[in-house]
């Protein structure tokens, strides 16, 4: 025991944080050892983001203490001092989009009057090279990919001297190759003594990257253990407080339907709820045909640049097709018109809930009913009682953690905001629901419930389209079309294997390679 153990990268104890009547953190603690990769997991609303705010100096806790490398945390408001201790990298990086990478790296570090731009660029180049980040410092930050933005943020944090970095769902917008590169970089930095707190709803990533895991539930600390000593079932049990079910409940059944859905163009026009005929968008995807029948959930699988998201956005009218057409129940939908798509019965769950999904200052009830206000009272009036009643129903069926329908959406945790977006799309009882990565940021248990709700849309006789690269999202589909570089590369019935679908999304032709060596 005589070896000198370096002080913990961060140590927090007895942290209490209240928002009005809500106790977001109830005497919790966390200790991240130097050079460790420590996961923090918990259901939506468990308190993870609130802890991040406390550990980065954004919120002052009502009680408790935080220290970095054995020294008390800086005073509240001393941003410069906090930056030398800790940084948080979010899925959307916090860089200023209109400034160059070099400017972002040195933001607020120089007296503006004395900036020498050539020197600044050279320093930025050195700094990026030092941390092995392959990004041109003269590029506008807004033009970086999510992955590049995150690497720049990490380099920026390290250059301030921070040896502790929080990653809040960093993989949410990365494809498999991007996740690999991120993890490789993190392992490399870990070897140099940098510690990470990793927040993710993808439990497999916790097992792939982290050596320690802490679970919070309902604002309380439940357990901290070496990852190797906790099975997935035990982890889920700690998160939910219930014995874990063996598997996700919402697999599409392998039914008679399966054998009937081998072709994409064989459906008679009258039967399909949604049909794409030669649908194309220049630069995104080429002429695509498919039909979604009543009772069917269709998956549009694909990695980041595959065109699947653009296809989803074209179906809902956010983008205007450059060729072909979309039909709902045999009637053509006006291209490029969200209002027309909505009127035709297409419900939409967008990927980016902050930009496209919610009015943050408004209540849960108002947001959940944004598309149905014409149904909530006579002659265009909105009856508050009906709005609340509808919202209350959605809150319980989707298990939204909120103090009530009147709570502003801005006060909900990220995953619970996503559920409000889904509630809103369901409110109109769409004939076809188009959902883009519907479970992003949603915890394991809620994920199951949400996918069940999407499945339910089809089971009541309507239809759904799930645009995603998440295998769990795609498992509820009766049929999956995989896109690669804007083209359909493969199509699967519900009996696909993870390996086949992943290969297709990576651009490898499906089938015929069973048993091939990696
Ligand atoms: N500004 C705020 N005002 C009121 N309540 C808040 C505020 N911020 C968070 N809360 C509440 O605190 C609790 C914890 O939220 P937090 O965002 O920390 O959860 P989380 O674990 O990060 O969830 P998710 O996985 O969904 O991101 C939630 O009940 C949330 O509604």
What does this 3D model show about the protein?
Keywords: ATP-binding, Nucleotide-binding, Repeat, Sugar transport, Transport. InterPro entries: AAA+_ATPase (IPR003593), ABC_carbohydrate_import_ATPase (IPR050107), ABC_transporter-like_ATP-bd (IPR003439), ABC_transporter-like_CS (IPR017871), P-loop_NTPase (IPR027417). Residues 10-243, 268-510 form the ABC transporter domain. This protein is of the alpha/beta class and 518 residues long. Helices cover 32% and strands 23% of the residues. It has three domains: 10-95 and 144-240, Rossmann fold (3-Layer(aba) Sandwich); 245-345 and 430-508, P-loop containing nucleotide triphosphate hydrolases (Rossmann fold), CATH 3.40.50.300; 360-429, no CATH class. The chain is globular. Residues 254-270 and 512-518 have low confidence and may be disordered. The structure holds adenosine-5'-triphosphate. The site of adenosine-5'-triphosphate has 19 residues, from β2, α1 and α15.
């Amino acid at each position: 025991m005589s070896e000198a153990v370096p002080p913990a990268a961060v140590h927090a104890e007895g942290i209490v944080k209240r928002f009005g009547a809500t106790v977001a953190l109830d005497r919790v603690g966390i200790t991240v050892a130097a050079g460790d990769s420590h996961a923090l997991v918990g259901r939506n609303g468990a308190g993870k983001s609130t802890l991040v705010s406390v550990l980065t100096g954004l919120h002052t806790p009502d009680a408790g203490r935080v220290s970095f490398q054995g020294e008390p945390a800086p005073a509240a408001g001393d941003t410069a001092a906090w930056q030398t201790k800790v940084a948080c990298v979010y899925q959307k990086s916090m860089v200023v989009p209109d400034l160059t990478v070099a400017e972002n790296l040195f933001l607020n570090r120089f007296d503006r009057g004395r900036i020498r731009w050539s020197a600044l660029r050279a320093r930025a180049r050195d700094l990026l090279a030092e941390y092995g980040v392959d990004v041109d410092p003269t590029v506008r930050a807004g033009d970086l990919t999510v992955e590049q933005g995150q690497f720049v943020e990490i380099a920026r944090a390290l250059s301030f001297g921070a040896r502790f970095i929080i990653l809040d769902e960093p993989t949410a917008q990365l494809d498999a190759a991007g996740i690999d590169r991120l993890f490789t970089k993190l392992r490399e930095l870990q070897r140099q003594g940098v510690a990470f707190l990793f927040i993710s709803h993808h439990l497999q990533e916790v097992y792939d990257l982290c050596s320690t895991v802490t679970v919070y539930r309902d604002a309380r600390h439940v357990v901290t253990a070496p990852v190797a000593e906790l099975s997935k079932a035990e982890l889920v049990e700690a998160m939910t407080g219930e014995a874990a079910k063996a598997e996700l409940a919402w697999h599409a059944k392998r039914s008679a339907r399966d054998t009937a859905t081998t072709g994409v163009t064989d459906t008679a026009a009258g039967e399909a709820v949604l049909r794409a005929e030669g649908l194309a968008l220049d630069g995104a995807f080429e002429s695509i045909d498919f039909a979604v029948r009543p009772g069917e959930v269709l998956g549009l699988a694909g990695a980041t640049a595959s065109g699947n998201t653009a296809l989803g956005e074209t179906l809902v009218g956010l983008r205007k097709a450059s060729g072909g057409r979309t039909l709902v129940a045999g009637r053509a939908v006006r291209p490029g018109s969200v209002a027309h798509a909505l009127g035709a019965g297409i419900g939409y769950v967008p990927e980016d809930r902050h930009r496209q999904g919610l009015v943050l200052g408004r209540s849960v009830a108002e947001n959940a009913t944004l598309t149905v206000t014409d149904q909530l009272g006579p002659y265009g009036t909105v009856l508050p009682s009906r709005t609340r009643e509808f919202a209350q129903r959605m809150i319980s069926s989707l298990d939204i953690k909120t103090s009530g329908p009147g709570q502003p959406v801005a006060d909900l945790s990220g995953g619970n905001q996503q559920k409000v977006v889904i509630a809103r799309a369901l409110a109109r009882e769409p004939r076809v629901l188009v959902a883009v990565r519907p479970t992003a940021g949603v915890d394991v248990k809620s994920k199951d419930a949400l996918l069940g709700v999407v499945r339910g849309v089809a089971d009541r006789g309507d239809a759904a389209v799930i645009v995603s690269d998440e295998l769990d999202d795609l498992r509820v589909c009766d049929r999956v079309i995989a896109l690669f570089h804007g083209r359909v590369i493969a199509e699967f019935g519900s009996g696909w294997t993870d390996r086949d679908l992943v290969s297709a999304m990576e651009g490898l032709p499906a089938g015929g390679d069973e048993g091939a060596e990696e």
